[in-house]
Design brief:
By secondary structure, the protein is α/β, with parallel strands linked by helices. It has 3 domains: 269 residues, 3-Layer(aba) Sandwich (Rossmann fold); 151 residues, Isoleucyl-tRNA Synthetase, Domain 1; 51 residues, no CATH class. 47% of the residues lie in helices and 16% in strands. The chain contains 16 helices and 19 strands. The strands form 7 sheets. The protein has a 4-stranded parallel sheet, sandwiched between helices. It binds one RNA strand through helix 1, strand 5, helix 6, strand 11 and helix 8.
Length: 492
RNA sequence: GGUCGGUUGGCCGAGAGGCUAGGCAGAGCUCUGCAAAAGCUCGUACGGCGGUUCGAAUCCGCCAUCGACCUCCA
């Protein structure tokens, strides 16, 4: 039996996964900032970690999965002054900041449901944890890694770096970083340009502000994740995930805050999902080249030739490794659509098979393929190779189905095939059947009638009638499949 | 300028010293009234140049090239 190995961004090696307190696993993933719609790139990362969460659960771990909602604390620094991001968007829309938060939080959760993401076990918000963040900032001051200036609190990177290693995750060193920061202004308060804010004093125009020992203000962006992960998963926990673009500075700062406050390494395995590209370029809010999940589903985007379903997109994501870049384009979506249908059709066929005399070679091949599903997933969640095995299993299922629905395997192997195939497609990859065939009794009955009429026309060699029915159904989005034994239909 | 990661067949995308990835597209065949579906068979590949090795897509060096991060982003 294989054992789970995870690529750890911190050590830059694949490591055997050994939870701190088995069978429990603590998983923290940086969630969205809810001042805008999530774009498809965000969805990829959350889908990757959804798959990881699902596989950990499938593997028998009891997982506490924390994914935060950032509803405070993000700063835009373009003018060198702290502007709360949520607040500036609120002014544009003439809404209360918490209205913006509510709107986009709900929108985000809708998107999650659409893509069949399981809800995290805890979904904490930054504004709900101001006290914890203040406490952590106080602890950092007490430990000599932070200082207060004029109502704001900054993390003292140089002081931290004397005792610990700032840059351990991203491979940077502070001298180079400081050289790179030289020309930015608005940094007078800080001891050093690389220091980052734990708490910012709120100006008179700020609406989202809270009382603190340093006056009214709001928390720095990096602090919320440290405070909430510590609160819900402890000072040390198993897995911390997020997008590659958060590695620096966000995750680096998180490590510094946790180590500085708790004096221990907070995270055992750091995992980073890679970017979703669009015309070879990273999809990002600032570049304005992002594509919204809803545009994909409606097909309302210049890049798209038609609408693609959420499961097609999810399957496309799963066909590549979570840590590889993925470029989205029409061809890839079309491929994924066809491939997914192939796998899901085999689910239906599999349920209809009957056992006949087992063929030893086939039996062995199927058992090996079933076992390989776990092995590939254990190898750093290699969904691409898992899907390759599933395709090969689907091929076996199709052969059985074509041979009079007769499976040349033992009952035990059939049971293994059935549970493995379904578990990996639905429970692990998180795919689901989207079209209505197969779970709509009324349609099934009507279609059976139509198919019977067409088949009697075929028996009578009345090709005009049978083709008319077939063409009309195709027009309506229903494809007829004739095989030797019977005729089936599929809603496209 | 610094840090990190890519470059695999028509396209997407795994793999990581010898062992068929897989899908989509393409060609041929089987089945079939025709088509679709399904099945079988087939082809083309590891950015370039050196090196290590019995053997390199895989390791090392150099070069080219693309990208991410260093500033808000999953």
């Amino acid at each position: 039996m294989s054992e789970l190995h995870i690529y750890n961004s911190l050590s830059r090696k694949k490591e055997k996964f050994e939870p701190l307190h088995p069978p429990f696993v603590g998983l923290y993933v940086c969630g969205p900032t809810v001042y805008n719609d999530v774009h498809l790139g965000n969805v990829r990362t959350f889908t990757s970690f959804d798959m990881i969460y699902r596989y950990l659960v499938y593997s028998g771990y009891k997982v506490r999965y924390v994914r935060n909602i950032t509803d405070a604390g993000h700063l835009t620094n373009e003018q060198g002054e702290g502007v709360n991001r949520l607040e500036s968007q609120a002014q544009l829309e003439r809404l209360e900041p918490m209205e913006v938060v509510q709107k986009y939080t709900v929108g985000f959760q809708d998107v999650c449901r659409l893509f069949n993401l399981l809800p995290p076990t805890i979904e904490p918000s930054a504004t709900g944890h101001i006290i914890e963040q203040i406490e952590m900032a106080q602890q950092l001051i007490a430990n000599g890694f932070a200082y207060e200036v004029n109502g704001s609190v900054y993390f003292d990177v140089k002081a931290y770096n004397k005792k610990h290693n700032y840059g351990i995750l991203s491979g940077r060193n502070i001298d180079e970083l400081m050289a790179g920061y030289r020309d930015l202004d608005g940094q007078e308060e800080k001891r050093n340009s690389i220091d980052f804010a734990l708490w910012k004093k709120a100006g008179p125009a700020h609406i989202m502000k809270w009382k603190s020992p340093w006056g009214e203000g709001f928390p720095g962006w990096h602090l919320e994740c440290s405070a909430m992960s510590t609160k819900y998963l402890g000072k040390q926990f198993d897995i911390h995930g997020g997008g590659m673009d958060l590695k620096f500075p966000h995750h680096e700062c998180e490590i510094a805050q946790n180590v500085g406050a708790c004096d221990c390494e907070p995270v055992k395995y750091w995992m980073h999902g890679n970017m979703l590209n669009f015309n070879g370029q990273k999809m990002s809010k600032s570049l304005g080249n992002s594509i919204l999940p809803i545009q994909l589903i409606t097909g309302d985007h210049i890049l798209l030739d038609k609408a693609y379903s959420p499961m097609t997109v999810r399957f496309l994501f799963m066909q590549s490794h979570y840590s590889s870049e993925l470029d989205i384009n029409i061809k890839g979506l079309q491929d994924a659509e066809k491939g997914l249908r192939k796998l899901l059709n085999a689910v239906k066929y599999l349920a209809e098979l009957k056992i006949v005399a087992a063929d030893e070679k086939t039996e062995k091949e199927i058992i090996a393929l079933c076992n390989s599903c776990k092995e590939f997933m254990d190898d750093d969640f290699n969904t691409a190779r898992l899907i390759a095995s599933l395709y090969e299993l689907a091929s076996h299922i199709n052969i059985f189905f074509n041979a009079g629905k007769s499976a040349n395997i033992s009952q035990a192997t059939y049971d293994l095939l059935l549970t493995t195939y379904n578990a990996f497609i639905f429970d692990v990859l998180g795919l689901k059947e989207e079209n209505i065939s197969g779970n709509n009794d009324a349609l099934d009955k009507v279609m059976q009638l139509v198919i019977d009429i067409r088949n009697s026309a075929r028996t009578n060699k009345d090709w005009a009638t049978s083709d008319k029915i077939r063409d009309a159904l195709k027009e309506a989005g229903i494809v007829i499949k004739d095989s030797k034994e019977n005729t089936t239909y599929e809603v496209v």
